Amino acid sequence: MIKLITTRFIGITSLLCDGIDRRILIRSIVDSNIFRLKQKKYLFSGWILSFYHLKILSFYFLTMVSVCLGSPPEKFSLVWKYNVPQPIFSSVAVSSGSVYFGSLDSCFYALDIASGKQLWKFKTTGEIRSTALVENKKIYFISGDGNLYCLSDSGKLIWKFRTKGEKKVDFADYHQSAAVLKNGLLFFGSGDSCIYAVHAGNGSLKWVFKTGDAVHSTPAIDDQAVYCGSFDGYCYAISIDNGALLWKFKTVGHHYFPKGEVQGSPAQTEDLVFFGVRDYNVYALDKKEGYCHWNRSFSKGWVLSLTILDSVLYMAGADERMLAAVNPNTGTEYWKRSMDFLVFGNVVKMKEELLIGTTMGKLYAIDLNTGSDKCVFSTSGYNKSRLKYFKENDEYRDDIYSIITSNEQFLEVECELGGIFSTPVCSDNYVVFSSAEGAVYCLSYL
Question: SS3 sequence, 144-204?
Answer without folding.
Answer: CCCEEEEEECCCCEEEEEECCCCCCCCCCCCCCCCCEEECCEEEEECCCCEEEEEECCCCC
